[in-house]
Automatic annotation (TrEMBL):
Domain DJ-1/PfpI: 75-197
Taxonomic superkingdom: Eukaryota
UniProtKB keywords: Signal
Keyword Signal on entry: yes
InterPro entries to which the protein is assigned, alphabetical: Class_I_gatase-like, DJ-1/PfpI, INH-QAR
Keyword flag Phosphoprotein: no
UniProt signal peptide: 1-28
Pfam families: DJ-1_PfpI
Protein's name in the database: DJ-1/PfpI domain-containing protein
């Protein structure tokens, strides 16, 4: 049954998150919000602009982007709240992925936020896209859960602290375990969100939004990338 009170979504952002991890799902959610009450918070460590797909701090490129052909080719996004003053009683915590997830020191505050909120103010849903699952695994909230992640980074995600407590599903576009929704890489997040919209608001709504986006949606088991990367379920 559709929610009547505003759905409160908190998306965690950090330098070098992947654009489509966040903006693909947000496109669907923006359309959903035209018909259903929703609030969105973009949450980071500070209110400083966040560079996308590259880590740019004080005009200096760090990490993998520093060695690219176009180190300053990026967009920026402005957070609307910090981890310290983020709204309480969020209905959804949304964690995108990207190369920034590999900077474990920089993302530790986000990991701590996930752990604290799930323990003390449990959201109705936790969503992760791509390597955002690595942050959730590090927080411990995925322990004992089925989950998936980006197939190109699948083996790396399985090395982070806490990942050995997770049952990782290699061949899956997205995985649902209770109120935990985790997707494979990048574009898979949009398929997951369309699946979530169907779950929460019904098939008519998810189809209305999918058609409006001209999106050819894939099902949970439509995952050719697991085979491409030579992955098997363990």
């Amino acid at each position: 049954m559709p929610l009547t009170a505003p759905l409160r979504i908190g998306a965690l952002i950090f330098p070098a998150f992947t654009a489509l991890d966040l903006f693909g799902p947000l496109q669907a959610l923006n359309l959903l919000s035209l018909a259903h009450p929703m609030n969105l918070s973009l949450i980071s460590t500070t209110l400083d602009p966040i560079s996308i797909d590259r880590t740019i701090l004080d005009g200096v490129v760090h990490g993998m982007g520093a060695n690219s052909s176009s180190p300053f080719f990026t967009e920026y996004i402005l957070p609307t709240a910090t981890l310290e003053d983020a709204p309480h009683d969020l209905d959804v915590i949304f964690v995108p992925g990207g190369s920034g997830t590999r900077n474990q020191a920089a993302t530790q505050p986000h990991v701590d936020f996930i752990r604290d909120r799930v323990q003390n103010e449990p959201p109705k849903y936790l969503w992760t896209v791509c390597t955002g699952a690595a942050l959730a695994a590090r927080s411990g909230v995925l322990a004992g859960k089925n989950a998936t992640t980006n197939k190109a980074a699948f083996n790396w995600v399985k090395t982070v602290e806490g990942a050995d407590e997770v049952h990782w599903i290699a061949k899956a576009r997205w995985v649902v375990d209770g109120n935990y929704w985790t997707s494979s890489g990048v574009s898979a997040g949009t398929d997951m969100i369309l699946g979530w919209i169907e779950h929460e608001y019904g098939r008519n709504e998810s189809e209305r939004i999918r058609i409006g986006m001209e999106w050819n949606a894939l099902d949970q088991t439509d995952d050719p990338f697991a085979e491409i990367y030579g992955l098997v379920d363990s």
